[in-house]
Specification:
Number of strands: 19
Helix content: 10-25%
Number of helices: 8
Radius of gyration: 19 Å
Number of domains: 2
């Protein structure tokens, strides 16, 4: 299933993508939760009802008629791993960066989460906005002390993430959180592809393009620590909850590693895509001042055609 969070005529709901349309699941079956997080929390029975509802002749809309939001707009945690692709590690070493021997995790504040086709702000305080295409993993059940062998059973599905990073602010703190958490810098989507739709999450090609130019291109097979090892590591420390988002690392080709360095500027269009899932595409705009836009206008600014993906 491809499950999406969307708005239509100002109403937010949960839908399934079917043949270029989105089926409004709660409108088809009122027993289905109206949000992705609530659906995941409700467990397998709710997922089965969602699958059955999509097969009915209920309410549906053409994709261009809706606005797609982040699949899980309000997870309890957004965790991301650093230095998890071999060639990315190599380019970091060439730039004199220290590469640790263990998994390196940081937190992206959930307030950075953004829609798949919404604008990303170039902060007023920086000119070093960078991109990072990543496979996002969404947790499907509450779990702790998960072994690598058990890990796939706790995955709800996958999505495309772009871990936009404000590099100078990232380097100001050893935790990296500050530079990873600017508002709008966590777009993801365009939907959640359930785990049963992906034969092997470690065999997916992903790319990132800036204004049509390929900057990153790699297979998830090149991860240093695979997804199951990541979940085992994290769940040793903390309880993972339904809806929690894990970004599994970015490959080589980031702007900060180029010679000379190349950062994003206002007007750039950044597209991140993963085979079998879809793509997200975001315009870079100047960060508005509070007087420039109302909150709703700021959210809508730069929103692209939500039929893409």
């Amino acid at each position: 299933m491809k499950l999406a969070t969307f708005t239509h005529l100002g109403r937010r709901s949960l839908g399934m993508i079917v043949d270029g349309h989105i089926v409004d699941l709660p409108a088809c079956d009122p027993s289905i939760p109206a949000s992705m997080l609530a659906l995941l929390q409700a467990g397998p029975d709710a997922m089965s009802r969602a699958r059955n509802a999509a097969a009915s002749s209920g309410t549906y809309y053409p994709l261009p008629a809706v606005r797609l939001l982040a699949p899980v707009p309000n997870p309890s945690k957004y965790l991301a791993i650093g230095m998890n692709y071999r060639r990315h590690v190599e380019e970091a070493l060439r730039h004199g960066m220290k590469v640790p021997d263990t998994q390196v995790w940081f937190n992206k504040q959930v307030s950075c989460i953004n829609g798949p086709y919404d604008a990303v702000h170039l902060p007023k305080v920086s000119s070093q906005l960078d991109y990072e295409v990543e496979l996002g993993v969404v947790i499907g059940q509450r779990c702790r002390h998960v072994t690598p062998e058990q890990a796939r059973s706790v995955i709800a599905g996958y999505t495309v993430c772009n871990d936009f990073t404000v590099r100078d602010w990232q380097l100001r703190s050893p935790t990296m959180t500050i530079g990873k958490s600017f508002d709008t810098t966590g777009p993801c989507g365009p939907w959640l592809v359930t785990d049963d739709e992906i034969a092997d999450p470690h065999d997916l090609s992903m790319r990132l393009l800036v204004n049509g130019e390929v900057r990153q291109s790699e297979s998830t097979s090149s991860m240093v620590h695979d997804i199951y090892a990541q979940i085992a590591y994290l769940s040793t420390v903390m309880t993972l909850e339904p809806g929690d988002l894990i970004a599994t690392g970015t490959p080589s080709g980031v702007g900060v590693a180029m010679s000379p360095q190349v950062f994003l500027k206002v007007g750039d269009v950044v597209r991140a895509e993963i085979d079998g899932i879809g793509y997200i595409e975001n315009h870079v705009i100047a960060e508005p001042t509070p007087n420039d836009f109302s909150e709703n206008q700021m959210q809508e600014c730069g929103n692209l055609d939500s039929s893409k993906g």
